[in-house]
Design goal:
This protein is of the alpha/beta class. 33% of the residues lie in helices and 30% in strands. The longest helix has 28 residues. It is found in: Membrane.
């Protein structure tokens, strides 16, 4: 190695070291930015676009930084709303009123009101894709009414609304439908499921301010057909079944009636695995939905003898049939809405691309009316719980 080569290598290493300690890549200081973590989008009654951004307030999040020692007073976040003819104009109006530059680099949640959802999310997706810093992994939610109702929800267990909604997704309480998922669905016809939020009173939870007696929770799911929200929606229970079909469910509880006395028996179901497979024989297309899981008895009000292996097999049979019927009910709702919400067309395209292209133009009608779907559920009841007889039955003996 020559002297010139050694000098070049040393200079390169020194340059790389300087890059590593240079600090921020952007020339803009962090304290000059407003990091948006929640975006709310809706239409007003007069057809205007309504854009609301939720921004954390750093001066209220750090103890001792809000005019004295101790916990700072006031909410640690704020919502700012503007109305305009489109989202770009609304964003510009928001920026004019804020002392910091808006940044979408930390946006994890996008909530859309029902009025906008029924018109379609094309404008929303177009706006998001044009923002370089926007994360395509941001989760979508729909509200049953005015989107700003979410801003009146009190923060009981978390300090910021986006934290609550992210935990709904992370804990598999709601479907994880992202901006990317919706964009992919648009290429296949715009059919998809997006979780709905519920709002109501807040019984049983103490509040410092009685006027904020509000509650927000995970609800059902909105069915999108052709990129627009259908009038048909999934209930909260059906939403859980949709999570199961979509392989986004870790565990759940299912209750059946005992075959001996019609008393309730509840099962905790875990290790859920579901597959969706197309089956093609000549010109005939069908689908097979198969699911397996493990279960144990969580509670029983029946006097049924859980020590008997034949009884356990009978319970397995009833449990499997119950879940299969729930699967078929949810699939029937998506058919009624003319929405291939579980994107079976993608499975057909991946496995049989030639067949898919031959039926692509008629797929809506095929899925809604003609497509045979076979559902098979195999739940292994491997534990009867800590006792064999119902505790209620034992105490009444």
């Amino acid at each position: 190695m020559t002297r010139i080569h050694r000098t070049t290598i040393k200079a390169t290493l020194v340059f790389l070291l300087f890059i590593g300690v240079s600090g921020c890549w952007s020339a803009e200081e962090l304290n000059n930015r407003a990091f948006v973590n929640t975006v709310l989008i809706d239409l007003t009654e007069d057809g205007k676009t309504e854009l609301t951004v939720g921004v954390p307030l750093p001066n209220r999040m750090i103890p001792g930084q809000a005019g004295g020692a101790g916990q700072p007073k006031g909410d640690p976040f704020s919502f700012v709303t503007k109305h305009a003819d489109n989202l770009s104009q609304a964003l510009n109006m928001l920026q004019v009123d804020l002392p910091r530059n808006i940044s979408f680099g930390q946006t994890r949640i996008i909530v859309v009101g029902r009025r906008q959802a029924e018109q379609g999310l094309d404008k929303v997706i177009e706006f998001v894709f044009r923002q370089p810093s926007f994360r395509l992994s941001a989760s979508l939610f729909i509200t049953p009414g005015d989107v700003k109702e979410i801003t009146r929800s009190p923060m009981v267990f978390e300090r910021i609304i986006s934290d609550i909604l992210r935990k709904y997704v992370n804990h598999h309480y709601t479907l994880d439908t992202t901006i990317k998922d919706y964009k992919i669905a648009l290429y296949q016809g715009g059919d998809i499921l997006i979780p709905l939020l519920n709002f109501g009173e807040l019984p049983g939870v103490a509040q410092e301010d009685p006027k904020k007696n509000r509650w927000m929770g995970s609800g059902g799911a909105a069915i999108f057909s052709g990129g627009r929200m259908s009038k048909i929606v999934l209930s909260p229970h059906e939403h859980r079944v949709a999570l199961w079909i979509s392989s986004q469910l870790k565990n759940t509880t299912t209750t059946i009636s005992s075959p001996t006395d019609d008393k309730e028996i509840s099962f905790f179901i875990e290790d859920v695995k579901t597959s969706i497979d197309p089956v093609v024989h000549g010109e005939n297309i069908s689908f097979r939905v198969k699911s397996s899981a493990k279960a144990f008895v969580e509670s029983s009000l029946s006097h049924i003898d859980l020590k008997n292996p034949e009884v356990l097999l009978k319970l397995e049979e009833i449990l499997n049939k119950t879940v299969e019927e729930q699967f078929l009910d949810v699939l029937a709702k998506t058919r009624q809405a003319r929405s291939d919400a579980f994107i079976m067309s993608q499975y057909l395209d991946w496995r049989y691309p030639k067949v898919w292209h031959s039926v692509r133009d008629q797929w809506k009608n095929i899925y809604a009316k003609e497509l045979p779907i076979d559902v098979s559920v195999d739940i292994n009841l491997n534990r009867s719980g800590g006792v064999y007889r119902s505790v209620v039955q034992e105490t009444n003996r």
